[in-house]
Amino acid sequence: MLRIRDASVTFPASDGQDVHALDHVSLDIAPASIVVAVGASGCGKSTLLNAIAGFLPLSEGTITLDGQEIVAPGGDRGVVFQKDTLLPWANVLDNVALGLKYRGVSRGERHERSRRLLELVGLADFAEKPPYELSGGMRQRVGIARALATDPKILLMDEPFGALDSLTRETMQQLLASVWAKTGKQILFITHSIEEALTLGTTIVVMSPRPGRIVARFDADFVRDFAESGDIGPIQSHPRFIELRQEIRSLIHQPEGARRGTLQ
Amino acid sequence: MTLAANSRTSFPPATAQRRPSPPPRRSASASTFGISLVTLAGLIALWFLAARFGWASPLFLPSPADVLTQFNAVAADGYANGTLLDHTLASLGRIAAALGVGIFVGIPLGLLMGLNRWVKGIFSVPIDLYWGLPPLAYLPLLIIWLGIGETSKIVLLSLSTFAPICFAAQAGVRSVAVERINAALSLGASRLQLFTSIILPSALPEILTGLKIAIGAGLSTLVAAELIAAQSGLGYMIMSAANFLATDVVFVGLIVIAVLAFAFTSGMRWLEHRLIPWKGKL
Question: Where are the residues of the annotated region Disordered (chain B) (predicted)?
Answer without folding.
Answer: 1-28
